[in-house]
Amino acid sequence: MADIHRKQAAVRFLTLGDSAVSVEFGDSISLAVNQRVMALQQVLAAKAADNELPGIRELVPTYCSLMVLYDSLVLDYDTLIARLEELTDDLQLPEEKNKTVVEIPVAYGGEYGPDLAEVAALHGMTEAEVIACHAAPEYPVYMLGFVAGFPYLGGMDSRLATPRRKTPRLKIAAGSVGIAGGQTGIYSVESPGGWQIIGRTPLQLYAADREQPILLSAGQYIKFKPILEADFKAMME
Amino acid sequence: MNIKIINGGLLTTVQDEGRYGLQASGMQVSGAMDMPAAALANLLVGNDELADTAAVLETTYLGPELEFQADGLAAVTGGIPDVRLDGQCVQPYRTLAVKKGQHLKIGAQSCGMRAYIAVAGGFAVPKVLGSRATNLKLGIGGWQGRKLTAGDILPVGELPGYAAGVLAGKKRLRQAEAPGCAPEVREIRAVLGPQEDYFTKEEITAFCRETYTVSHESDRMGYRLQGRPVQKAKQQDLITDGIVFGSIQIPPNGQPIIMLADHQTTGGYPKLATVAGVDLPELAQAMPGTKLRFKMITVQEAQELLRRRHRKQLAELAGVKAGGEMPLYSSKARRYNLKISGEIFEVVVDPVD
Question: Are residues B10 and B108 in the same domain?
């Protein structure tokens, strides 16, 4: 039987000063690497909840690594690294059936997606083809970052890859769905930006006053569902 | 009780220890830049049980003018700020008993960059996502998610026991030692990593030999430094990963950026080193124009320094607290030993005045 573990890149423990380490599982963006990040997050979160590893303050997953923030008055570096070595050695990947897919309704084109026509023209596609192509995959949420609730997604069809706009917009509405190079994403808060905007979701990815302030979390999948402008307006009310 | 803002100063925000637990969602921590100074200010006004969580005001070089709408206690710490009560010069690093209607004005800093104003009971603005810290980027927390301006009226929490004791004349005012001014070139200790492998040994040595100046393009999010550009040896782009308070990023132009309290949670520039926690308060007090020189230490050394500082702080805080207690007897008291049936008793005689 092939030993899968041997094929994986060696785990590296990177030091971020006296109160954080990053556990790095590889140096390329891939689902396989990101799943190991998420698996370690789950194991450590469970240990911290059971008070088996006191001193862990926070866990921040990114594409290839898990940043572990800790209180060094409670947990010292050498003890933490020894524990992390043990835990990464026999890391079990979660089962596929636990996959969570979050549906994101999107009004494509028109006032909500001012760059849809341009993106379609650039790729010799119709607007409907771009929408179908963009709404087909289940996109993994690799991480959140940049601002609260902003998801870094993988898995966009390479036929949709489009360079950023030459002149960034000063204001992009929260919920805007865009393309930048080979990536697609959703603006969680209003901000300036150079992404090609092809649609907008009425869902709030970030709302401070909601019980669950951040809609998405790393490790989930999202699927875009095309909706009509009228549906968008109805959902906003 | 409320406090009215007469003048907001340059950039005054409500801060506490920060908004933890949501960094995995991309939420910045924010919070006081100089945490020990904020905690000391809280202790001076008797927010003992809340020293880490009671909200304070953080100023930026030029502080605000506040009007107290009821009797209370205040204390100002952080660098050496100019503090005036109804125009009279008063000491920072001391409990100030403030009467209803009095104005507390924080002027320029003669040392440091940020003062912390604590009031007994803490600034009782609503918590947002578990914290009262102002997040300017998202416009949440603090007072309406923004810096303070004239006319704002901030609520203050219930007076803690110590404050009530002071106002009733049963407790003494507390005081702490003010720090000295930092030297012209500050040595900042740092731990190599997480991306030291993007740089050659020679480049790292050069980075530690040179001095870097804190530029005017600096804020609570980060300090942009000016000095010898740091060259990357590895041209491969870094895949975005985690950032902490103190991360030293090297962007493509080679001029380092130190990430501070309002830092983004993740970023794609290689990070050469991370400032040791023990030196973060001093760094947070660095004005634009301050010169920094970096010294690399090991992570174990950095943790030992943190432990030592923690012990020292606990002892100092205990001393400040003890100084606020009334002695049982006056200085005129006399002690006598009395022998009654073979047993010796101490008797204290204190004149009544």
Answer: yes
**Residues 58-117, chain B, touching A (beta carbon < 8 A):** none
A221-233: per-residue pLDDT in tens?
999 999 999 999 9
pTM of this structure: 0.91
Q: What is the pLDDT of residue A6?
A: 46
Together in a domain, B159 and B205 = no
Measure the CA–CA gap between A161 and A181, rounded to whole angstroms. Answer: 5
In this structure, are residues A142 and A150 in contact, taking their beta carbons and an 8 Å threshold? no
- Among residues B289, B278, B283, B282, the alpha carbon closest in space to that of B259 is found at B283
CATH number at residue A129: 2.40.100.10
- Residues from chain A contacting residue B133 (CB–CB below 8 Å): none
Residue B325: predicted pLDDT: 87
* Chain B residues whose beta carbon lies within 8 Å of the beta carbon of residue A58: 20-21, 23-24
CB atoms within 10 A of CB A164: 14
Q: How would residue A2 be classed by pLDDT, with cut points 50, 70 and 90?
A: very low
CB pairs under 8 A between A and B: 138
Neighboring chain A residues of B274 at a CB cutoff of 8 Å: 15-18, 20
Query: Distance between CA atoms of A167 and A187, rounded to whole angstroms?
Result: 17
Q: Is the dihedral of CA B22, B23, B25, B28 positive or negative?
A: positive
On average, the pLDDT of chain A sits at 93
Write out the residue range of the structural domain in which residue A125 sits.
99-236
Same structural domain for residues A210 and A143? Answer: yes
**Domain total for chain B?**
2
Same domain, B280 and B216: yes
- Give me the residues of B, 174-213, that contact A with CB < 8 A: 190-195
Which residue among A58, A61, A63 places its CB closest to the CB of B239?
Answer: A63
Q: Are residues B92 and B162 part of one domain?
A: yes
Mutate to test the interface with B, among A18, A56, A144 (most CBs of B within 10 A): A18
pLDDT of residue B240: 92
Residue B110's domain comprises: 2-167
Residue A105 neighbours by CB under 8 Å, 6+ apart? A201, A202, A203, A224, A225, A226, A227, A231, A232, A235
CATH code for position B212: 2.40.100.10
- Do residues B136 and B205 share a domain? no
Same-domain check for residues B136 and B256: no
Q: Are residues B283 and B137 in the same domain?
A: no
CB B54 within 8 A of CB B46: no
- The pLDDT, as a whole number, for residue B329 is 74
Nearest to A213 among B129, B239, B300 (CB): B129
Does B272 fall in a domain?
yes
| % of chain A with per-residue pLDDT over 70 | 95
In chain A, the residue whose alpha carbon lies closest to the alpha carbon of B189 is: A17
- How large is the greatest C-alpha to C-alpha distance in chain A, in angstroms? 60
B321 falls within a domain: no
Q: Two tokens at B224?
A: 């942009």
What are the per-10-residue average pLDDT scores of chain B (353 residues)? 97 97 96 96 89 88 97 97 97 97 97 97 96 96 98 95 92 92 92 97 97 96 97 88 97 96 94 98 96 98 97 92 82 85 85 72
Same domain, B12 and B136: yes
Please check whether residue B235 touches A, CB under 8 A: no
CATH number of the domain to which A73 belongs: 3.30.1360.40
Contact assignment for B244 to A20 by CB distance below 8 Å: yes
